[in-house]
Design goal:
The protein is built from 14 helices and 6 strands.
């Protein structure tokens, strides 16, 4: 699973993450020593969790540190309000607590409580959108985390597509999103679009430096995302431009996989290339009518910053080994090598 590098640093603010704004401004309790449960080792904490059980803490967007501290104490997580409050005041990580339903062990020390609140695996309503995810896959994930199929379908049907674009596909930025339980699907979509718009701006899709419209650059970014590894994104972006300029069909396998809704296979049958769809870049010239996935920041940047070169062809002959050329003869030779490696199971072993 490929994730935006910034996202790997935590839940700082991709969706509705909040600052614990009450911590510094509220007056510290006057109690000299706040009652606290002892901190257990990792082994002891597992057994303590089995004995004492766990509770769910629903943290709302904008909730203060004081409110969180009180919630933890009232739920039997911490020994006192003051113990967590004081730990949170002195630990800058407190500002990264994400809204949502957190599963927290009972009767643990305040520092362990903070660690568990920062543990993404303990968040119940966590939506993880991978780079290159399809709209259909995002809908399925929303259903999986508890929203009804009808609620999701209605929200997407009513969603407002930003001016200049024709589809939500490509506009829902891939990230890790957490949110409070009362959040509607419509609100989630709006916030994902807002984050996506910020990333499109940062990547320069609205800079107007090319004749290509922002929706075309977004489509290129989705092709780049689907067709290669990050190290090759800028070259693939240039291949798209070179083929468009030469009047050649793109002939990208990823567009056919998108039509078929198939993932996990590098092989594409000849019969599949005849599928009747405007997204089939074997049958139709030019770009697809809309993005074929939701690209990440690296693909967006590559769409507006192609690496200069005369390449017209590229092929991944083995996992991690993508080669570029402007010679059809060289491409055909590499294609033979690809088939040999495919038959030998090299792609299968790389999954």
């Amino acid at each position: 699973m490929k994730l935006d590098r910034d996202l790997l640093r935590g839940f700082a603010g991709v969706f509705a993450a909040f600052a614990v704004i009450g911590l510094i401004h509220l007056e510290k309790p006057s109690v000299a020593v706040a009652p606290d449960f002892p901190c257990a080792s990792s082994t002891d904490s597992t057994s303590a969790s089995q004995v004492n059980g766990s509770v769910t803490i629903d943290i709302r967007s904008g909730e203060t540190g004081s409110e969180i501290a009180q919630n933890l104490f009232d739920s039997g997580v911490t020994a006192s309000y003051s113990s967590f409050f004081r730990v949170a005041v002195g630990d800058s990580r407190s500002s990264r607590i994400a809204p949502g339903i957190h599963r927290i062990d009972r009767k643990i020390c305040a520092r362990s409580a903070l660690s568990q609140l920062l543990d993404s695996t303990r968040i119940g309503n966590l939506l993880v959108v991978d780079e290159g995810a399809w709209l259909s896959e995002i809908k399925s994930k929303l259903v999986k985390i508890g929203y009804s199929q009808s609620e999701v379908s209605q929200a997407f049907a009513k969603a407002v597509i930003p001016s200049g674009f024709t589809s939500l596909e490509g506009l829902l930025f891939p990230a890790q999103y957490s949110f409070e339980s009362a959040t509607s699907v419509s609100s989630i979509i709006k916030l994902m679009i807002a984050r996506g718009n910020t990333e499109l701006q940062k990547a320069g899709l609205f800079a107007g430096k090319e004749k290509l419209a922002p929706r075309d650059l977004l489509t290129i970014a989705s092709l780049v995302q689907a067709e290669g590894d990050e190290k090759d994104f800028a070259k693939i972006s240039q291949v798209v431009r070179n083929r468009l300029k030469a009047g050649m069909p793109l002939q990208f396998d990823s567009t056919v996989h998108y039509i078929k809704g198939s993932r996990g296979s590098v092989f594409l049958s000849t019969q599949s290339t005849f599928l009747n769809s405007p997204f089939n870049t074997y049958r139709h010239y030019g770009l697809p009518p809309a993005p074929i996935n939701n690209p990440g920041s690296a693909a967006l940047y590559a769409a507006t910053h192609p690496e200069k070169g005369a390449w017209l062809y590229f092929i991944t002959v083995a996992p991690g080994d993508t080669r570029f050329t402007d010679s059809i003869n060289q491409f055909d030779n590499w294609k033979l090598l690809y088939k040999q490696n495919l038959k030998a199971g090299k792609f299968r072993s790389a999954k």
